[in-house]
Amino acid sequence: MDSAPLLNHGGIIFLFLYLFSLIGVGLLGYYSKKEDSLGDFYLAGRGMGGIVLFLTLYATQYSGNTMIGFSGRAYRQGFTALVTVTFMCAIIGLYFIYAPKLHDLSRKHSFITLGDFIYHRFKSIHLTITISIISIIALGNYILTNLKAIGFIIEGATAGQVSFVNAIIILSLIMVIYETLGGMRSVAWTDMLQGILLLFGVIVIFYIIYKQYGGLNAISSQLQINRPDFWTPPDWSAKRLWLSTILVVSIGVSVYPHAIQRIYSAKDSSTLRKSLQLMVFMPFVTTLFMVIVGIVGASQIEGLDRNNSEQISILLLVDLAEQIPNISWLIVMFLAAAIAAIMSTVDSALLAISSTVTQDLFRKIKPDSSQKTLLLFGKSISWIIMLIAVIMAINLPQTIWQLFQIKLELLCQIAPAIFLGVHIKSISSKSILIGIYIGTFISLSIMIGNWMGFPIPIKPFGIHAGLWGLIFNCLAIFTIDRNKLRSSIKLA
Amino acid sequence: MSRIKLYGLNSFLLLMTVPWFFINTKMESTGGFPHWALYALFSTLIYAISIFYFLHRYWSISASEKTLKK
Q: Among the residues of A236-328, which ranges form H helices?
């Protein structure tokens, strides 16, 4: 990236005004609380309406990866990056399987966390704690990687005027303040702002880049010369990898504990249904647009390595701003949208961890605690988690950084507990627990074995480690519960 | 429609979004997309429309308290 700052003083001021306005939204959330209870704090009183629910789902599911990672992937891999559009749609297809029933159950039994459903369904403390710990690790990794990304973005955009460390500290502080002020209400309302900024940013950036460079049709002849490999359809192993990518991402993302809390927060099932109906088309105006931006970039700027290709959108915008100075505001918009996308994901993950520790771990040890004590404990946990995340994001050595990128592989292993648990009454806690242990062990063995230099491919036979784990996880469940399953299907 | 058929159809449509049937490289394109990429995009659109319809029409089946039907 160029060493001159992408953001001028005006841009930096705009960005900081936007960021500090989020604390104002947090205060609004604080003054709108109805009572001091976990349900009110973590689920916004279970009264989330259609627009808020849709925008908070949207902002949570589309992270910084949408703005940066997807276009970078398209720059490197061409049209095979379209798999990102499919897996974002598939997440909603998976919600269709479990969300309708889970929402009804959550209203009936006042669930607050994923652990509440697991305990209600399986009556096993051991399983509930196992799933809670896996969720906390996966969400913690999510917070860490996103904090690191936000530090690099701001340091790069301001050419070091705001350092990596300061950027992480300032943004974390803003997030934890508005989160502990109003809980889910503040997070959902800030998500609304962030969701609008993200959607508007993606559409405007796509439109201007598409218009200025002439669109895919105009650049396709140039692309056929520069990157003829983009025209090659995936071979059989790449097709297997394509399907594996769809499955591992959609299954992992569909069981995000913070997304499940949004299912609980919906005012009623009709609101949830309409939000999901809208969400299924969002990949076509978000993911697809960023993929096309990456492909346009490949026709205009050649020879970027992996790290630089992640900056393809910003490089195109800088290139355009040099030709047309009037549109330099677009760079501010892009950065604001990318930061908004990251923040909306981090704050939701932080809230989910705080509620999981409070409701699924602390409350199991101290069941007689008052709602006020639980709330105070939950808010303190948010600060402690954020403090640990900030220290780790700043100081973690690069050599063990890979370990913290394991997220979806872990989350995939808890999926059977939700998908099967919701629909099949005869599935036992024992089989689910053994399945989770086997699946997690296999996934981690493949990934860590590969990193340690053992002769294990990271994706054996073109299939992700998390999916191998899930296959053996499900095999274990069906083997242990085969007799019960057979009789339940016969009975039905 | 039973729940198993519904989820089976959901999975089948998702499986069909992979461009399984395109093997040879052709430098032809429509709207700037190679034909296999266009297939992937349109099949994903069909999948999304189907999920939209399932959510609208079969929400109550998916929410039903009854256990899985064969």
A: 236-254, 257-265, 269-279, 282-285, 287-300, 306-309, 312-323
Alpha carbons A459 and A445: distance in angstroms, whole number = 12
Nearest to A269 among B17, B47, B59 (CB): B59
Could you give the C-alpha distances from A432 to A311, A473, A477, in angstroms and in order?
Answer: 42, 8, 6
Phi, then psi, of A234 in degrees rounded to 5:
-60, 140
**Long-range CB pairs of A120-127, under 8 A, 24+ apart, other chains included:** A121/A421, A121/A422, A122/A417, A122/A421, A122/A428, A122/A429, A122/A432, A123/A429, A124/A429, A124/A433, A125/A364, A126/A429, A126/A433, A127/A417, A127/A429, A127/A432, A127/A433, A127/A436
* Cα dihedral across residues A457, A459, A465, A471: positive or negative: negative
Cα(A369)–Cα(A362) distance, integer angstroms: 9
Per-residue pLDDT tens digits for A446-483 = 999 998 888 889 899 989 999 999 999 999 999 998 88
Which amino acid would we find at residue A146? Answer: N
Tell me how many degrees the CA angle A222-A227-A231 measures, rounded to the nearest 5: 100
- Helix A429-451, helix A465-480: angle, nearest 10: 150
CATH superfamily of A9-398: Sodium/glucose cotransporter (1.20.1730.10)
- What digits encode the pLDDT tens for the residues A80-130? 999 999 999 999 999 999 999 999 999 999 999 999 999 999 999 999 999
Query: What sign results for the dihedral spanned by CA atoms A448, A452, A458, A460?
Result: negative
User: Hey, where are the domains in chain A?
Assistant: 9-398, 424-492
Helix axes A371-395, A329-355, angle to 10 degrees: 130
Q: Determine how many CB atoms are found less than 10 A away from the CB of residue A184.
A: 30
Q: Which of A335, A326, A332 is nearest to A11 (CA)?
A: A332
pLDDT in tens, B20-51: 999 887 778 888 899 999 999 999 999 999 99
SS3 A266: strand
For A214, which residue in chain B has the nearest alpha carbon?
Answer: B32
User: Which pTM was predicted?
Assistant: 0.92
Q: A292, A74 in Cβ contact below 8 A?
A: yes
**Is the distance from CB of A480 to CB of A431 less than 8 angstroms?**
yes
Tell me the residues of chain A between 178 and 237 that have a Cβ less than 8 Å away from chain B.
215-220, 224, 228, 230-234
The interface residues of chain B toward chain A in range 2-61, judged by CB-CB distance below 8 A, are 3, 7, 10, 14-15, 17-20, 22-27, 29, 31-34, 36-37, 40-41, 44-45, 47-48, 51-52, 54-56, 59-60
CA A8/CA A250 separation, integer angstroms:
39
Q: Which residues pair with A48 in a beta bridge?
A: A266
Q: In the predicted model, is pLDDT for residue A2 greater than 50?
A: no
> CA A249 to CA A235: how far, in whole Å?
21
